[in-house]
Amino acid sequence: MFMLVVLQVVVELATIQTTAAAEKVAVVVLVVVEVVVVVVVVVVVVVVVVAVVAVVVVVVIEVLLVVVEVVVIVDVVVEEVLVAAAAAVVVVVVVVVVVVVVIV
Question: Could you tell me the pLDDT band of residue 43, with boundaries at 50, 70 and 90?
Fold first, then answer.
């Protein structure tokens, strides 16, 4: 009878130790899973931030290209206006010279 009680106590202690070990393993597994989830979330956030920065850079480059195109167009228009103004001045000078020559 005494051996049966001792055996029962030994089995109970082994069960308690096994349960405690299993709980420790479960806690370690949960911590590892949580760390992996946090790392994955951080990687996803970094990828999203890099993608947003890339989109912003592309938009800024496109805006700068449009500004350069507008500056080139304005330059051409100003050049054409200056050429037209110079031609108008030449015409006015020629007309004034002709009028002065005719009058004199």
Answer: very high
